[in-house]
């Protein structure tokens, strides 16, 4: 394998290895040793062989391995010194490799234990989320009695003041359906329930009543409005509907 | 039919995430202790029933799940490539679970190796999340485990994890990767 090829592998690289502490723990285990300084000096040579191999693979990121290698070398050299000299060395700042290994080993074991737990989607399953009945897939059956609404609107239209306007009337504001819709939405922003008379304002003219009716029908269809039969009066309840939005 | 027990059962059944006791109680406008007792009965009912599902107390809530015996059957039925959680990922997850909130540097220090890859995978998988910044120079991110972590690892609270000191003298062969399709 050329160096270039190896370099391309770098991105998948050292993540696969668990790092220098993992390597050390494995060497200690393979050599049937306990974690203490003496065993570290015993495995130093083996450790260096691995690091050399990693280096040969041309991994750039072996810095962490080299730091530990240096520390192992230091321990080794210290173990070769006579006892008196060792005590003088105490002041020197050093990494406590034994302590680090013990700490790491606990977490390594703990993560192994974590793996043994009952894992969702490995050992146990729940209903998958895309089959959930919540939100968009929620069905609703319309309970609204549209005929009752039509009857009420018809009654309003048949009232004296909603007869066809006389010919002499010159100007007539046409009522735009979208504008009326916005007005109704605005009203809903103020109160959650609108009375029949709030929506079908007699004073605004016949055309307004018809347009309001169409708007309300549309909103019922979209699921934003519910008809409440309160006493003898119809009321309209605004609902927060997650299925869609007002087409404003 | 519409006993409190059945109402609670229905709510747990349709819920996508574990439903919390408080949620059920406040929705049903019932006393918390009564609901708690009733759920206990419900959980016990399902435990003794001859059924493939049970109610699991998880992530501080309740969830219907299949029993462990059906693992192989369902794995075959679902027939999807499982998502793999690497050993590095599992180690980082374990450290975050125990030390949270914890910075990347603190994680790296325990593992003796850079954990950037594992952290980003776990964050993407929503098993850990950034919960803030540590008040030290550089203001590094602080990571904690999520509710999804509890759900995936069948934990009710983070306190259900064993004490880390129990693993002092634990010696076990390190094996292959752990697989889950979360």
Features:
heterodimer, A: 248 residues, mainly alpha, Arc Repressor Mutant, subunit A, three-stranded antiparallel beta sheet, 10 helices, 3 strands, 51% helix, rod-shaped, disordered N terminus, disordered C terminus, B: 182 residues, alpha+beta, 2 domains, two-stranded antiparallel ribbon, 8 helices, 6 strands, globular
Largest sheet of chain B: 2 strands, antiparallel
Helix proportion of chain A: 40-55%
- CATH topology-level name of the largest domain in chain B: Arc Repressor Mutant, subunit A
Q: Could you tell me the radius of gyration of chain B in angstroms?
A: 19 Å
Global morphology of chain A: rod-shaped
For the record, give the distance between the C-alpha atoms at the N and C termini of chain A, rounded to a whole number.
Answer: 65 Å
CATH superfamily of the largest domain in chain B: Winged helix-like DNA-binding domain superfamily/Winged helix DNA-binding domain
CATH architecture of the largest domain in chain B: Orthogonal Bundle
Extended strand count of chain A: 3
The class by helix and strand makeup of chain B works out as alpha+beta
Mean pLDDT metric of chain A? 74
Question: In the CATH hierarchy, what is the class of the largest domain in chain B?
Answer: Mainly Alpha
Sheet with the most strands: spatial strand order of chain A: 1-3-2
- Catalogue the unreliable spans of chain A: 1-13, 131-137, 242-248
Q: Enumerate how many helices of chain A there are, as a single number.
A: 10
User: What is the chain-wise order of helices and strands of chain B?
Assistant: HHHEEHEHHHEEHE
Content-based structural category of chain A: mainly alpha
Which oligomerization state do the chains in this entry correspond to?
heterodimer
| Percent range for β-strand residues of chain B | 15-25%
Number of strands of chain B: 6
């Amino acid at each position: 394998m050329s160096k270039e090829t190896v370099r391309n592998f770098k991105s998948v690289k050292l993540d696969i290895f668990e790092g220098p502490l993992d390597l050390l723990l494995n060497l200690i285990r393979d050599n049937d040793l306990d974690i203490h300084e003496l065993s570290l000096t015993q495995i130093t040579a083996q450790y260096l062989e691995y690091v050399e191999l990693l280096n040969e693979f041309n991994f750039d990121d072996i810095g962490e391995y080299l730091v530990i290698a240096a520390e192992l070398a230091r321990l080794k050299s210290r173990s070769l010194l006579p006892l008196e000299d060792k005590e003088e060395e105490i002041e020197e700042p050093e990494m406590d490799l034994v302590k680090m290994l013990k700490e790491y080993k606990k977490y390594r074991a703990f993560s192994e234990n974590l793996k043994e737990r009952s894992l969702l989607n490995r050992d146990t399953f729940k209903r998958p989320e895309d089959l959930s009945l919540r939100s968009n897939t929620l069905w609703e059956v319309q309970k609204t009695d549209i005929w009752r609404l039509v009857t009420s609107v018809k009654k309003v239209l048949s009232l004296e003041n909603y007869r066809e306007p006389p010919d002499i009337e010159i100007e007539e504001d046409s009522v735009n359906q979208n504008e009326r819709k916005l007005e109704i939405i605005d009203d809903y922003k103020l109160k959650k329930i609108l009375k029949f008379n709030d929506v079908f304002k007699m004073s605004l003219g016949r055309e307004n009543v018809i347009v309001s009716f169409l708007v309300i029908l549309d909103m019922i269809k979209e699921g934003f409005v519910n008809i409440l039969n309160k006493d003898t009066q119809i009321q309209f309840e605004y609902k927060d509907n997650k299925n869609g939005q007002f087409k404003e | 039919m519409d006993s409190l027990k059945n109402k609670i059962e229905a709510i747990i059944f349709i819920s996508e995430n574990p439903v919390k006791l408080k949620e059920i109680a406040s929705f049903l406008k019932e006393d918390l202790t009564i609901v708690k007792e009733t759920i206990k009965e419900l959980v016990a009912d399902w435990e003794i029933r001859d059924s493939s599902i049970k109610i699991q107390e998880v992530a501080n809530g309740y969830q219907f799940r299949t029993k462990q015996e059906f693992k192989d059957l369902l794995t075959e039925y679902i027939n999807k490539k499982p998502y793999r959680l690497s050993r590095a990922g599992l180690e980082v997850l374990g450290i975050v679970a125990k030390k949270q909130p914890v910075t990347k540097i603190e994680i790296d220090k325990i593992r003796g190796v850079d954990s950037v890859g594992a952290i980003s995978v776990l964050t993407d998988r929503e098993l850990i999340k950034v919960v803030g910044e540590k008040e030290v120079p550089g203001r590094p991110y602080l990571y904690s485990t999520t509710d999804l972590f509890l759900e995936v690892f069948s934990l009710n609270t983070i306190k259900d994890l064993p004490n880390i000191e129990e693993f002092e003298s634990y010696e076990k062969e390190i094996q292959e990767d752990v697989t889950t399709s979360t």
